[in-house]
Amino acid sequence: MTKPFALGMTKATELTKAGKLTEATALIQSLLTGQARDSGPPPDEDVIDGMFTRLDEGEGRPKPAPPVPPKPRTSLRETLRGIAAGGMPAHAPFAKGPAPIPEGAQFLALTHKSRQGQRDYKLYLPAARPDTAMPLIVMLHGCTQSPDDFAAGTGMNPLAERHGFLVAYPAQPTGANANKCWNWFRPEDQARDRGEPALIAGLTRDILRDHGADPRRVYIAGLSAGGAAAAIVAAAYPDLFSAVGVHSGLPVGAARDVPQAFTAMRSGAGGTMLAQPVPMIALHGLADATVHPKNGSAVVKQSLQAFGSLRAATTRGVSTGGRAFRQTSHARGDGPTLVEQWEIDGAGHAWAGGQSAGTFTDPAGPDASAEMVRFFLQHAKG
Asked: Residue 273 CA to chain centroid, in angstroms?
């Protein structure tokens, strides 16, 4: 980034925080236009090498779903307004409300309090509880969503009944972010023992203490801003989380202020080096007009750099709903997959295979929740 560009973006940040969106918009447009002229043609997309297996095409195979046209780009001014409010701009219909739970199950409303503040959260306890300690999955919702909405949309609670694990859904209040986004782009919310990572780690420890979850099998996942936050929390607490799932999110260190957040969302970002690797599964729709699909590849690249040399294997397929996808798994020898990437053709900014009862879901896609659970349960701390 050139010095004039950096200085201009700093000025744009000040204008945005002051509510002068028109001036900030004009300044960023002029900066981006000038940068585009100087930077030359864009580089080629990253290619993941490895063994390739193509699924056989046969009769009875579902026809691919027609690609969903990308939504028109939100205007720069509206994007800045959303980020200035504290996160990704988001618009969603109202959720239909929490789904009924089976007899014997519980969906508790709890609160974690610490010196960093407090966060409400919902905790799902399945009716079928084994005698042994159960795994725990922490789910971070996207902008404008709530724990009930996210639970309904992802269908994670029925999977908890099937496989026997706990699910926690922390809630981001409007007091922390006007759009209820997790503040993935703020430095104070990107480090261990500070801000939102400390709050999420704290409520996770509360569940381990109070509900007997298995400390060797604790996982975290999220969508959009929640996906970016999940990556940050896992990187900050590799001793606490055994694996992480990032759906339509961004890599750790993608942004540290409003202009960088805007650039990362629109064009992709590389992120920073991870101090310690954590097994990771990433899913991203290739028609995502809110968080550029390059960010999904950057999340994967970031994890691969932390793990070092791994063997890659790629499979193509079509979901039962007709979405074509490419799945690439990275492992060491014959061991479990350590990094896994799902690229979904025609899918926008939504939870793949989600339920229509929740917001930001794509029922036609491959089942992101089931794939995350499969991936997570391969990993436990020694």
From this structure: 18
φ/ψ (deg, to 5) at 127: -65, -40
Residue 31 has pLDDT above 50, yes or no: yes
Residue 103: C-alpha distances to residues 100, 107, 182 (Å):
9, 11, 33
Concatenate the DSSP letters of all residues of 297-350 into one string.
HHHHHHHHHHH-S-EEEEEEEE-TTS-EEEEEEEESTTS-EEEEEEEETT--SS
Average pLDDT over residues 117-145: 95
Minimal CA–CA distance to 277: which of 321, 311, 324, 309?
309
* Mean pLDDT in residue range 56-66: 43
For 358, left (φ over 0), alpha (ψ -120 to 50), or beta?
beta
Q: What is the pLDDT of residue 130?
A: 83
Q: How many C-beta atoms surround the C-beta of residue 141 within 10 A?
A: 31
Largest CA distance in the chain: 64
Token pair of 58, please?
Answer: 């046969």
Cα separations in angstroms, 11 against 71, 131, 255, 376: 30, 58, 16, 43
Asked if 271 and 339 touch (Cβ cutoff 8 Å), the reply is: no
Q: What is the reported pTM? A: 0.80
Strands 106-114 and 311-318: unpaired
